[in-house]
Amino acid sequence: MVNYIHKGDIPEDLTFSNSIAVDTETTGLKINRDRLCLLQLSNGNGDSHIVQFINTYEAPRLRAVLEDSAIIKIFHFARFDLGVILKYLNISCSSVYCTKIASKLSRTNTDRHGLKDLCRDLLSVELSKYYQSSDWASLELSKEQIEYAASDVLYLHAIKKKLDEMLKREKRMHLADACFNFLPHQAMLDVSGWEDENIFSH
Known about the structure:
Blueprint: E1 3-7, E2 19-26, E3 36-42, E4 48-52, H1 60-67, E5 72-75, H2 78-89, E6 96-98, H3 99-106, H4 115-123, H5 143-154, H6 156-169, H7 173-194
Parallel strand pairs: 1-4, 2-5, 5-6
Antiparallel strand pairs: 2-3, 3-4
Helix pairs in contact: 2-7, 3-6
């Protein structure tokens, strides 16, 4: 397993197949207040590619990958990541999959749908969240921060496979697909000011 750090964009010779795991690290949890610091990618082979943003968000090669509808983008809690990507990279991702939504639709025997829960329950992997709230805006990332950021994408392909089996078994894949298709629109709502309001409520 290798964790690659890239400054500002992915390299020209880096290519991905038909699916990638994606995550972001920010200075906080408010899309319209807090800054995008890192974006992590993995094609499921055990390696991660971490893009660190310093002064610019141009990243043309990264943006092209995220906009490619032929590549499935696997997130955990995609709503937040998609909002941050839309706000800072100015793109709307297509072909999105969210393991948190898939878990809520298929694992109705529990209310624990965090990434740590999914890693433990589905893969028997204990994931540490100790560095979750560390300073992601730091110019020099520690070894521990890099390993933590990588861990957020390294298991998503395996989790997706398990959840897909459960969704199909419970005949809820069509519901999951409908939710996934709406997520880019939800990100637009969040960035436009409806982040804390459920427009479907009474």
